[in-house]
Amino acid sequence: MSNKSYLDELLETLKPQQELKQLLKDKAEEINKILSADNTMNPIDRINYKIEIVKTNQELSALEKVLKEKEDYFKKYAIQFEKDLKEANQNYKQVIQKATVKAKSDQNIKLLLDKVNLQAIETSKELKVAFYKRFKNLV
Amino acid sequence: MNQFPRVLISAPTALAKKYCFEEWLDNVMQLSYPNFNVVLFDNTNDGGKFTEYMNEYHKNNYNSEKFYAVKSLKINNFFSSSIIEKMCLSHNDCRKYMLHNNYDYLLHLETDVFPEKDVIEKLMFHKKKVVGAIYYRDEGLYRKPMIQKFIEPLPNHIKSINLEPNEDTCFIDGTLKKVSHVGLGCVLIENKVLKKIPFRFEKNIEMHPDTFFAEDCLRNAIPIYADTSLICRHENEDWGIYGINFK
Known about the structure:
Order of helices and strands of chain B: EHEHEHHEEHEEEEEHEEHHEE
Distance between the termini of chain B: 43 Å
Order of helices and strands of chain A: HHHHHH
Strand content of chain A: under 5%
Helix content of chain B: 25-40%
Shape of chain B: globular
Number of helices of chain A: 6
Strand order of the largest sheet of chain B: 3-2-1-4-12-6-13-11
Low-confidence stretches of chain B: 241-247
Mean pLDDT of chain A: 90
Oligomer: heterodimer
Radius of gyration of chain A: 25 Å
Strand content of chain B: 25-35%
């Protein structure tokens, strides 16, 4: 088991986007350097470079919005998830036992129990939390 | 007379979305577009309490002509045990209201989606029949943009797949993109499209009205676009189980 917090795990998924953000910034900076270093540049080339800066900034702006949306969401989501995971780890077996007993008389629980692979659920904390919450509501 | 096209902002809602209703309405009321109204269709089975709550909040804080909430099930005198059927009914309430009152566009805006202030102008600027903003769906590591891309258009069906969680890195680049499905979270739909295409579902098929809508657009040769410069905040929460946690 990893020692990383769930939030760290989530934030790690943003690495490719953070890398792209930096690359886009670098690209705009390099183009600006070229533009200011070369006064003899053909006007069409100069315009093309400037267009490239506009397009890069547009891409950067969209990427920054995505990063903000995801970071804000992850921070909020991780707090609740850690609470749910703690509760699931404490009560999961008990809830599944109750569900197994209740499944004999409750068709909804039986259907759900038949559909899920309880062993597979144990291997993923996201699945464990999701199904724990679902069963907890049913029993 | 207002020269701007008339826009109806509308969506189904329910008690399950109460946790963010006030913030949602505050966000919608500060949209910069000068000619819109907001009508929500509440499909909560609670005798109209949530509808009253929404109208009361609006009255106390804005008291404008712009907003009202309506009891969706009361209008249709209908009860269903299927959430998909209920959703479809309310989507069609939005559609019927829009057509009946001659709005030029419907901004179908789900009640947990928070767009930017100038979302209507930006979407309208593209002059497309169906154009949506981006929002993210699902939770935790599975969170991904509500976008489906084409694999292959077949005669009666769209062969398309969801974007994977990290596929957005290069996809979302601030440009307008043709997609197969953009959801109904924040999408501007032209009046003519809704005259032709109602929202629908099919019994025993686990497919939501938004997916049928995308398919029907394709069948009618209406392309769907996503403006990847517009990223909405999506305050989605696990609804729980239909019939148990909400009815």
